[in-house]
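Example 9 (inverse folding). The structure is encoded as follows.
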């Protein structure tokens, strides 16, 4: 994926990996499922195999947090209010390299903040569910690799 990166950009690529889930990730995912009704089942399934995703050089960057990080953020800050009426809540599951956060709602819809702050965030819908979101990430990676990084 990053074979031509340094030649094209003049500096070495950063971390670009999909880290497999280890036992700690799987345990944190099970705990997430037990402590919050906000986490969709497909995210728990994802965390059964994938620990985290770090694609620092794809676009602005894509970062999907480990279940331990999601759990820690949930315990420290609670869920994020997705709408102004506080009817919809979600969990921050990652970010892009520009400071925007990805939030998954309890129904599985994935949102992205429009600003870098979670204090009074505005959201835009990115995908109907985790599968569609991951397919969007895959398309970004495909573009990146087809253009030689």
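The amino acid assigned to each position is listed next.
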């Amino acid at each position: 994926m990053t074979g031509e990166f340094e030649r094209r950009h003049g500096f070495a690529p950063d971390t670009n990996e999909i880290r497999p889930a280890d036992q700690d990730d799987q345990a944190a995912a099970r705990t997430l499922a037990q402590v919050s009704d906000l986490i969709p089942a497909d995210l728990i399934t994802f965390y059964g195999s994938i620990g985290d995703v770090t694609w620092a050089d794809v676009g602005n960057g894509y970062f999907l947090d480990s279940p331990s990080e999601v759990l820690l953020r949930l315990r420290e800050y609670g869920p994020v209010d997705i709408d102004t009426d506080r009817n919809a809540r979600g969990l921050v599951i990652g970010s892009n390299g520009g400071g925007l956060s990805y939030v998954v709602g309890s129904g599985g819809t994935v949102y992205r903040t429009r600003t870098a702050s979670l204090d009074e965030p505005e959201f835009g819908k990115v995908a109907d569910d985790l599968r569609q979101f991951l397919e969007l990430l895959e398309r970004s990676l495909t573009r990146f690799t087809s253009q030689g990084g």
